[in-house]
Specification:
The chain is of the alpha/beta class. The chain has two domains: 4-88, 2-Layer Sandwich (60s Ribosomal Protein L30, Chain: A), CATH 3.30.1330; 101-263, Alpha/beta knot (3-Layer(aba) Sandwich). The protein has ten helices and eleven strands. The longest helix has 17 residues, at 247-263. It is elongated, with a radius of gyration of 20 Å. The chain starts with a helix and ends with a helix.
Length: 264
């Protein structure tokens, strides 16, 4: 039976301050929970008898059998999906090494043979979750976020990643300090309306790709560090069209073009 205390704890984790205080976050559904179990330690798992009968759980995780009605009281989803798990955040007291994680400070430096995604105040949780999922698809293993970027462990972001947060490292830091410290000669790409056509401009298998805020784009302070300004042109050229692309869609187009050109 799912107790009122457990429901209260789960619901409290909707707020960032409570997630940070408890060192916990929530994931829901067979797909997301299943992908996260090998990487994060579950504090407890709440599931229907159907899910429990067909899935193996970590021996040290508390397991609570619940009805669909009880799950609905705790769930952040309109339609609960058989299982909900409360996981320990990376670095928690009982945490174990993880693949996907969110950290603070200059904990990541770009390597000489890979691409790193940088997010400048991407504030919508759905956009961030989709970007993490897209990065996972295109083999981007590190995302560096400004402090103003949405929290990667909010329920909405976790669900939108569809398990990709288990495989992509998320870092939070002041971007100007981070960018000023990258090795000399590292290409820093960024998307701008006044940039060069991405389909014609030379791209690279290494460096940083910066994506900006939903409404304001890349901030002037961060733009100072961009070495290559890119633009995704509308089609056909010169037609009246939308003012700009959604940042998650723009990220997908950008990463796809980098991979298309640098893998062939």
């Amino acid at each position: 039976m799912l107790s009122k205390a457990k429901i209260k704890l789960i619901r409290s984790l909707e707020l960032k301050k409570n997630r940070q205080a408890e060192g916990l976050f929530v994931a829901e559904g067979p797909k997301v929970v299943g992908d996260l179990l090998p990487y994060y330690r579950p504090r407890f798992i709440v599931a229907t008898d159907t899910w429990l009968e067909s899935h193996v759980r970590p021996a040290d995780a508390e397991t609570i059998e619940a009805t669909e009605e009880e799950l609905a009281k705790a769930s952040f989803l309109k339609t609960p999906q058989e299982v909900l798990a409360v996981f320990e955040m990376p670095g928690g007291q009982a945490g174990k090494p993880t693949s996907g994680q969110a950290t603070s400070g200059l904990s990541h430096q770009p390597s000489e043979n890979s691409l790193t995604l940088v997010l400048d105040d991407v504030q919508d949780p759905g956009n961030l979750g989709t970007i993490i999922r897209t990065a996972d698809w295109f083999g981007i293993r590190h995302i560096v976020c400004s402090p103003g970027t949405a929290d990667a462990f909010s329920p909405k972001v976790v669900q939108a990643t569809m398990g990709a947060i288990a495989r992509v490292h998320i870092h939070y830091t002041e971007l100007t300090a981070y960018l000023s410290g990258v090795p000399a000669g590292t290409p820093v790409f960024g998307t701008f309306l006044e940039g060069e056509d991405i389909y014609r401009h030379p791209l690279s298998t290494r460096g940083l790709i910066v994506m900006g805020n939903e409404g304001n784009g890349i901030s002037p302070a961060v733009a100072r560090y961009i070495t290559d300004k890119l633009f995704i042109p509308p089609y056909p050229t010169g037609c009246v069209t939308s003012e700009s692309l959604n940042v998650a869609i723009a990220t997908a187009v950008t990463l796809a073009e980098f991979r298309r050109r640098t893998v062939l």
